């Protein structure tokens, strides 16, 4: 049964994480630049591990019960996502791309760390996927099965984030072409605005319960 729970965690975890979102888009862009991409993947993975554990072992109820906390996370996320989208569209408009190389102008390690934490922790969908959905499903298991489910979801996070980072770096000679970078920035900006819009609509509902 523990094997079944682990497999369920792995499949559900992949189902939550594979759709293109803020984290995936950011790691993809860093992988193309080969700019601390494994560091970004590691931070995303560790945040997922923390949030999944929080959700499965009871913390999800605390967040779900606090409407003010949900509003704070939500509005912070909308603001960040819109700013990130504007930056992406600004790059598209200026169209000053260069071929990505190992020595391309790289962001500092501190900036990568800060931005990765922001992309992860200011994105309300991360809490929905990890704490709420995975947490609620994991809460239906007991004992060793609960641990097996948690390990399965964590394994999904590890496999996916490192796969994106590695794959983007390997395909950098093609993905790093200026025209491709411009298309990717346009797609990333659109995704960020779509997520921000969906979160905004959700936030309009919450105040009615305050």
From TrEMBL:
Places the protein is found: Cell membrane
Membrane topology: Multi-pass membrane protein
An annotated GO cellular component: plasma membrane
Transmembrane feature ranges: 6-26, 38-56, 68-87, 112-135, 147-171, 183-206
Organism listed in the record: Shewanella frigidimarina
Main location: membrane
Any one Gene Ontology molecular-function term assigned to this protein's record: amino acid transmembrane transporter activity
Protein name: Amino acid transporter
Sorted UniProt keywords: Cell membrane, Membrane, Transmembrane, Transmembrane helix
InterPro entries in the cross-refs: LeuE-type
């Amino acid at each position: 049964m523990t094997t079944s729970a682990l497999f369920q965690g792995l499949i559900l975890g992949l189902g939550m994480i594979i759709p293109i979102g803020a984290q995936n888009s950011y790691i993809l862009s860093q992988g193309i630049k080969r700019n601390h991409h494994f560091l970004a993947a590691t931070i995303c993975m560790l945040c997922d591990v923390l949030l999944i554990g929080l959700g499965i072992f009871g913390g999800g109820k605390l967040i779900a019960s606090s409407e003010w906390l949900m509003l704070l996370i939500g509005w912070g996320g909308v603001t960040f996502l819109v700013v990130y989208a504007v930056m992406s569209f600004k790059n598209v408009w200026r169209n000053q791309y260069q071929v990505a190389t190992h020595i391309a102008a790289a962001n500092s390690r501190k900036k990568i760390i800060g931005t990765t934490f922001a992309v992860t922790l200011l994105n309300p969908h991360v809490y929905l996927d990890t704490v709420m959905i995975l947490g609620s499903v994991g809460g239906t298991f007991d004992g060793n099965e609960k641990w097996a489910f948690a390990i399965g979801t964590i394994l999904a996070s590890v496999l996916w984030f490192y796969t994106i980072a590695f794959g983007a770096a390997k395909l950098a000679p093609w993905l790093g072409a200026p025209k491709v970078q411009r298309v990717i920035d346009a797609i990333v900006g659109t995704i960020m605005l779509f997520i921000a819009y969906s979160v905004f609509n959700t936030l309009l509902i919450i105040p009615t319960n305050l």
